Amino acid sequence: MGMTLAEKILARASGRERVSPDEIVVARVDLAMSHENADLVRKSFAEIGVPKVWDAGKIVIIFDHRVPAESEKTATTHKAVREFVRAQAIANFYDVGRGGICHQVLAEHGHVLPGMVVVGTDSHTTTHGAFGAFATGIGATEMAGVWTEGSLWFKVPSTLRILVDGEFRPWISAKDLILHIIGKLGADGADYRAVEFDGPAIRNLSVASRMVLTNLSMEMGAKVAFTPVDERLLEYLRPRAARPIEAIAPDPDAVYERVLHIDLERDVPEPQIACPHGVDNVHPLSALGDVPVEQAVLGSCTNGRLEDLEIAARIVRGRQVHPRTRLIVIPASQQIYIEALRLGYLETLILAGAMVNPPGCGPCVGVHQGIIAAGESCVSSTNRNFLGRMGSKDSKVYLASPAVVAASAIAGRLAHPEMILKEAPACLVTA
Amino acid sequence: MPGDSLILRGRIAAKLGANIDTDIIYPGRYLNVTDREKTAEHLFELAYPELRAALRPGDIIVAAKNFGCGSSREQAAAALKYAGVGAVIAPTFARIFYRNSINLGLPAIVSAEAPAVLEAGDEIEIDLARGSIRKLPAGPVCPAAALDPRAIELLNAGGLIPYLKQKHAA
């Protein structure tokens, strides 16, 4: 009997021949990532009382939630973490202006390779299953334990396999696909489980789009989520990896708890929107009627990558953001920022009336750089629409694809890109 | 007294719905609060401020499925614990919240039947090791999952930090 990807990786990391769902194993950790909450981890670590972390080379710290520091309190936190990083000789530290959103930075710098066990003090650490890693979120105290021992216990998850066929219709993206799946399975539809995405439609996706699927699998409770380790991924990894890359795959006779088949033309014919206040409250755009939006946010670890900025630029080019609406654009990393500058995407977005924020989590986590007031609605390419997530408890967040965010910014209401593009731009602005 | 801590008694302060997310438990804007005790000030701040105000030490919260879904923020479990909550009972917990809870020494009890059987105001007794909940003084018994021995070990130690502190003490 074969093993799934999650089983294979956990078996190897725990020194066993094979493992099965529900077994508890202690696995060695290959990479431990934290953002600003490294300050919490640092405090717990100090309480445990061990002087040195288990392996400074396996720890990565990236500031992204509050960059640059928005308050004296955060500045003090940042300073304390910097001092810790120096004292422990943690080389992989991405300070303000050096990195961007943690999950994007780990990917860009080749920190994550197939077969690794990755833990992060951020729930969206599931993103790194797009690189063939068993990657999951943990809390700060648990991370202090990892910094101490370099290992962690896991219950071996059963696996849900999702096979996707067909072609994406125009303007439909990985975001629409995963929102459809979350709507279908519910906020706990993959609780404690591993998810393996595969099928021709998945193998045709860019690495950036695969990261959308593994990132948002968290919102249906997944412990880890994988897309295939194929030639397309290896092409992405080769120039970035500092070590040899090993391709891994589930065994053909692996045992799955459930296999779900999705046909893109049939199941995801139009944009999908997660309505307030749950990521599983998903409806097709055409079912929502007239929904005015005061703010549109394009960014986050879910959808702030180059292809997201490109499609938004294509939609807003020569047009103006609706007078009632604010468009906030946040490149996911410094690298994406500079590429989007060189390619002219940011210029196009700025000319349309967008405000560009520095790479980071910004309004997605409801801290700064685009908080919304009572009575306001925001369409966002981010990952959560919980009550009060982006500001007032009396505000609303609608999660959507980058294309719908851009179209809605122009229309001033939730809108399909086709609706915007069928009208010629009112005035082509020349730079 | 390790044996004693396996039995908990308390009043059910509230019965909440499904998918109580970490932003409801602890809003993201307070993530820069890193003193665990102070997190209690912001428990349920946006959604249920009246519940926080009414909490008494040792109170128990019952919720429907998927309690604690969303962020990995440990402050969600810390805020409950330092606001005096003695345990949370739900049919299922989001996995990171569950681990955070046990690691901080806050019992998270899995019981499919609890939301149907228990009501706000009930006084109950929970046997963590056996996995049962009993209404006091002599009410019906509601089945619950027995806590994993590893979780009991952590709870008895007072959480992961004291557990590791002891383990690594030279």
Structural features:
heterodimer; A: 431 residues; alpha/beta; Aconitase, domain 3; 2 domains; 5-stranded parallel beta sheet; 16 helices; B: 170 residues; Aconitase, domain 4; 7-stranded mixed beta sheet
Biggest sheet strand order of chain A reads 4-3-2-5-6
CATH class of the largest domain in chain A: Alpha Beta
Largest interface: A-B, 50 and 39 residues
Radius of gyration of chain A: 21 Å
The CATH homologous superfamily of chain B is called Aconitase, domain 4
Which fold name is given in CATH as the topology of chain B? Aconitase, domain 4
Name the shape of chain A in a single word: globular
Distance between the termini of chain B: 24 Å
Shape label of chain B: globular
CATH superfamily of the largest domain in chain A: Aconitase, domain 3
What is the overall number of helices of chain B? 7
Sheet with the most strands of chain B?
7 strands, mixed
- What is the structural class of chain A? alpha/beta
Architecture overview:
The complex is a heterodimer of chains A (431) and B (170). Chain A has 16 helices and 18 strands. With 431 residues, chain A is α/β, with parallel strands linked by helices. In chain A, helix 3 (72-88) links the parallel strand 3 and strand 4. The relative contact order of chain A is 0.13. By secondary structure, chain B is α/β, with parallel strands linked by helices. Chain B has a single domain, classed as Aconitase, domain 4. Helix content of chain B is 29%, strand content 19%. Chain B contains seven helices and seven strands. Chain B is globular and about 45 Å long. The two termini of chain B are 24 Å apart. Chains A and B meet through helix 2, helix 3 and helix 5 of A and helix 1, helix 4 and helix 7 of B.
Write the layout of secondary structure elements.
The complex is a heterodimer of chains A (431) and B (170).
Chain A: H1 5-13, E1 24-28, E2 31-34, H2 38-48, E3 59-62, H3 72-88, E4 93-94, H4 102-108, E5 117-120, E6 134-137, H5 140-149, E7 151-155, E8 159-165, H6 174-185, E9 194-198, H7 200-203, H8 207-216, E10 224-226, H9 231-237, E11 258-263, H10 264-267, E12 272-274, E13 282-284, E14 295-298, H11 300-303, H12 306-316, E15 326-329, H13 334-342, H14 345-351, E16 355-356, E17 377-380, E18 396-399, H15 402-411, H16 417-421
Parallel strand pairs in A: 2-3, 2-5, 3-4, 5-6, 8-9, 8-11, 9-10, 14-15, 14-17, 15-16, 17-18
Antiparallel strand pairs in A: 1-7, 12-13
Helix pairs in contact in A: 2-5, 6-8, 12-14, 12-15
Chain B: E1 7-16, H1 22-25, H2 49-54, E2 60-63, H3 75-82, E3 87-90, H4 95-104, E4 108-110, H5 114-117, E5 123-127, E6 132-135, E7 141-143, H6 149-157, H7 160-168
Parallel strand pairs in B: 1-2, 2-3, 3-4
Antiparallel strand pairs in B: 1-5, 5-6, 6-7
Helix pairs in contact in B: 3-4
